[in-house]
Amino acid sequence: MEDTFQDSASEDGGFDLRQEIARSAFADMCHDWERNQKYDRALQLTIARLHAAGHQAHVLDIGTGSGLLSMMAIRAGADSVVACEAFRPMADCAERIIAANGMQDRIRLVKKRSTKVTVGPGQDMERRANVLVTELFDTELIGEGALGTYRHALQHLLTEDVLTIPHQATVYAQVVECPLALSWQQLKTLSNADGDILLRVPPEVATCRGSSAVFDIQLSQLPAGSFNVLTDPVPVFKFAWSKHQELINDRCEQSVCHARTAGFPQAVFMWWDLTMDCEGDVLLSCAPYWAHPEHEALKKKHSDNGSKRRLPEGNYIPWRDHWMQAVYFLPPLKIPLQRGQQFVLQSYHDEFSLWFGVGEQSVKDPLTAPHCTCGWHIAQSRSRIGQLNDSLRNKRYLNYFERVFSSDSVVLVLSEGSLLGLAAARMGVKQVLLYEPNAISRRCMEAFVEHNSVVNVRFLPSADALEPEQAVTITHVFAEPHFPSAILPWDNLHYGDLLKNLRPLLPANVTVIPASGTLYALPVEFVDLYKINAPLGSCEGFDLTLMDQLIDQHSTFADSPVEAQPLWEYPSFPLAGTTRLIEINFVQDFEQSKLERGELFVSEAERLNGIAIWIDWHLDGSHSPKTTISSGPLVPVEESSDEPTRWNTNWRQGVHLLRKTPNRKRTIPWSVKFNPVLSNVYFRFDEEEQ
């Protein structure tokens, strides 16, 4: 195998455009068979009803993407179809797809935003449309500007009696107690193994409502027992897409609820469904499995089809990654709800966002949209906050600190936002030097220092701020490591680069923690995740291979062969044991390039559709589990299994998805290269047969 490594850091001026095409959700949506079939059925019903009433069906498709919905409309008997698409590369591709399916003379493609489309003889549209079919939604339903787009279309492009597909959307909210979700939002007190408090959370951090950015998540994959449902799903908003006067930006709804069980109302789980046609015959639900109207029927169908493999409970319902569910955190209450207790769920939305509150009674003063006031939710990701709250992870670090630190220790911390580094200052060391180049992160850490009266800490706004006379006193260099710029876990190898540059200033016998990092790989069968990279071919009877070619062409230039994904949200089955790829040593030889080669041996080659990759950080040279911090599986994987792998919920892992399936090779050659100049790791997996 030739060691040619794809570098996603391309110098090509068109890189951003190519990446946008490669990572667009067009193919993901087309893999959503339920979405496709229910849009198709709604078009058939709507057009047939118009024809039965003696009316023609003139269809407008806003944001046509591949042209799929427009072609469905023609097949359903539409008298005319106008499709608009503003993203020019996709519009050009749709034009070719429509022609390849023989519909170029029946679909008028307008390469504009719908707000720029003109109506009248000789214009973009000859007449106003009486059927609108579109998919303008995201996980938050309105986050992509659906309200404004619908209002404009209703006012300028559509007839007064227009039939919209979908006809209506309903937003559901379910109040829950979920300590796992809360651990991604709210920092906890940090204590040692004896229960002694090392760091208390400043009040302004504890009461901060966090970021307003939507927290989209595959709710169906939350671990069993990780949340306590306090209410049934509550319909809080309805959007009638054909009613201009009802599509307003700012609304507040107050719903009287009764607690199903006792608990703290910590969060709201949100999802929505679409009533696809005006008669309500076709329903598309984005609910998690426990609230999905078709869960039991689909589970029975899976069993009746004779499938031998048991799926995770959340994977019997249709899978989609473009519309997930969302978590919204509630302002904290100090008193739990009691079973049967009445309370009020307050639901709000503006033009683009939703938010929620709870109270004992209806409120006159509306709750404003949340925004971070403490800085932590700006400086750190939700998964990073989860890491900071991870008790097992913290215990391993703190136990190790107790073994290696003393009252004479001077500790240099080369991580950003490291509460563990700050905790070392409370464990009796002489001094801690905190590298904090980001001003927001530094202010966050300063608040902890002030609130906890930590005196033996000095901040370094840059590596250059370390003075030589201070450097020679350092006994330990510690990193978690973590840097906010990291996307993949091994992007934190930036720690080694910082350490390399500071080495000439440090004592020769300085202790380096962690001492090394090891990357591992696991060949897997993803239940669904592979679809985001899988070719479409034919979709609901239409040839979409031209879109496959477009995405494949731009992926070659723009996408790294390994991308970041939170694998706990995407179940997979291991097809072999874990394979060690490469170890990178921070104590010595970090400056040297490294190349490792090997082979993955797969038990059932045809099931292989992805390779999971992660890094373990070894605090010392022992490689003991007690001194290893892993971003990978919670339980070591030693062989293939019909049980899904359990992944750490506070990390993203790396994924290499096979472009072509089914795979035919039982042995997959691989090579991994480490470039110390860029602190970068490059991967090559040769899964395709020659």
From TrEMBL:
Lineage, top-rank taxon, reads: Eukaryota
Q: What does this protein do?
A: Arginine methyltransferase that can both catalyze the formation of omega-N monomethylarginine (MMA) and symmetrical dimethylarginine (sDMA). Essential arginine methyltransferase that can both catalyze the formation of omega-N monomethylarginine (MMA) and symmetrical dimethylarginine (sDMA). Specifically mediates the symmetrical dimethylation of arginine residues in the small nuclear ribonucleoproteins SmD1 and SmD3.
**EC class:** transferase
Upper classification of the organism: Eukaryota, Metazoa, Ecdysozoa, Arthropoda, Hexapoda
Domain named Protein arginine N-methyltransferase: residues: 213-342
S-adenosyl-L-methionine recorded as keyword: yes
Q: Which organism is it from?
A: Anopheles merus
One GO MF term: protein-arginine N-methyltransferase activity
**What Enzyme Commission number does this protein have?**
2.1.1.-
Regarding protein family, the annotation reads:
Belongs to the class I-like SAM-binding methyltransferase superfamily. Protein arginine N-methyltransferase family. PRMT7 subfamily.
Q: What GO biological process term is on the record, naming one?
A: methylation
Keyword Repeat appears in the UniProt entry: yes
Q: What is this protein called?
A: Protein arginine N-methyltransferase
- Enumerate the UniProt keywords alphabetically: Methyltransferase, Repeat, S-adenosyl-L-methionine, Transferase
Gene3D superfamilies in UniProt:
Hnrnp arginine n-methyltransferase1, Vaccinia Virus protein VP39
